[in-house]
Amino acid sequence: MRMATIYEVAAHAGVSPATVSRVMNGTAVRPELETRVREAIALLEYRPSRRARSLRTNQSEMIALVIPDIQNPFFTALARGAEHVMRQAGYSLVLCNTDDNPDYEASYVQVIHDERMPGAIVAPSTTGTTFLPLLDEGRPVVAVDRHIEDPRADAVMADNFAGAVEATQWQFDQGSTRVACITGPPQVETARARAHAWHEVCARNGGALDEYLVWTDFQPGGGADALDYLLDLPIPPNGIVAANNLTAVGMLGAMVRRGINPGEITVSACEMLPYFSMPLPGLLTVPLPARAIGEHAARLLLARIEGDTSPAKNVVLNSEGEVVPAPSHSATPPAT
User: Fold this and answer.
1) Residue 278: count of CB within 10 angstroms of its CB
2) Could you state, in order of their start, the residue ranges of all structural domains in the chain?
3) Out of 43, 90, 113, 151, which residue is the most buried by the measure of CB atoms under 10 Å away?
4) Do domains 6-158+291-324 and 160-286 have the same CATH topology?
5) CA dist., res. 137 & res. 130, Å (int)
6) Is the pLDDT of residue 1 over 70?
7) 88-98 tens-digit pLDDT
8) How many CB atoms lie within 10 A of CB 79?
9) From edge to edge, which strands make up the β-sheet containing 213-215?
10) 160-286 is classed in which CATH architecture?
11) What CATH number labels 6-158+291-324?
12) 163 and 318 in contact (C-beta within 8 Å)?
């Protein structure tokens, strides 16, 4: 079957081939032009020639998405958002799972280099220094969920602080007086930001206790172990903030194991719980815009690949996926 060409799409839409290329690559054009181009692409079933682009640019048509946990639905949704945008631009997304291991990250950096990938979207395990060789080579890198400490890297984040403030304040609004926080590893930016929010809200409502802040591994097992620790304290909490979805799942399972009924301890979680839609008494989930983060990151990366040399952007999204001002607080909770 004969495939349509970019020139036929341009003629049908009444625009130049360059405009079609910009739309396919995610570069901003006037909305009415983009609508006409996308309608023509759909009608003519146009697909860009990956081989031609690869030969022209000496780059692969593949983009790396480097994430710490493929089993976490947050990163699955983020990947779907990024893949949707990249596919429309004619790129394939290659999923790389690191288990938050810097050595795995380093091996993927080598793959990105060897396969001549034009750029990467990454959720770094710590400060993101593993990815500096890519930036040194001129390959754009967009950080998601966690920043890279380099002024050349764009970043797209959820407003982790605001989400954790909402999750913690809800506890006190429900009448909880002893609110604990189970968060992730202290070297992970999101874990620190959510712990900091918990501390600030607790301080406004009567004080935060050292023993009520538990650093774990952002996994169900860590949530279960943290719950056992908290409930075995001389004065256990009557409300718990879980700083991510998998931690909350493990904590809720441990509550069932210990015979605690829903509502006896109020639970609030940052992120929606996987495969869980039935409301429970004493449970709040605060959504994070995972898919929107992936979409924004992909658009930023496509713009860099197309030659955008403007200063690096730090995009923060609220729970609705809308861009909001970046928070000005420190991500490190003060001593309690």
Assistant:
1) 5
2) 6-158+291-324, 160-286
3) 90
4) yes
5) 13
6) no
7) 888 999 999 99
8) 20
9) 213-215, 179-183, 239-242, 266-270, 283-286
10) 3-Layer(aba) Sandwich (3.40)
11) 3.40.50.2300
12) no
* pLDDT interval class at 329 (50, 70, 90): low
Query: Is beta strand 213-215 parallel, antiparallel or unpaired with respect to 266-270?
Result: unpaired
C-alpha span between 6 and 220 (Å, rounded): 49
Alpha-carbon distances of 285 from 90, 96, 161, 196, 335, rounded to whole Å: 36, 28, 15, 18, 27
Q: What is the pLDDT of residue 50?
A: 53
Residue 294 parent element (H or E): helix 290-305
State if pTM tops 0.85: no
Residue with tokens 């710590």: 126
Question: By the 8 A CB rule, do 21 and 57 touch?
Answer: no
Q: Is the model more confident about 298 or about 272?
A: 298
Per-residue tokens: 125: 């395990």
Beta bridge partners of 323: 317
Q: Hey, what are 53's tokens?
A: 């682009």
What mean pLDDT is reported for the chain?
A: 88
For strands 314-317 and 323-324, give the pairing: antiparallel
Q: pLDDT tens digit string along 122-172?
A: 999 887 789 999 999 999 999 999 999 899 999 999 999 999 999 999 999
Question: In angstroms, rounded to a whole number, what is the distance separating the alpha carbons of residues 196 and 169?
Answer: 13
Q: Which residues contact 137 (CB under 8 A, 6 or more apart)?
A: 113
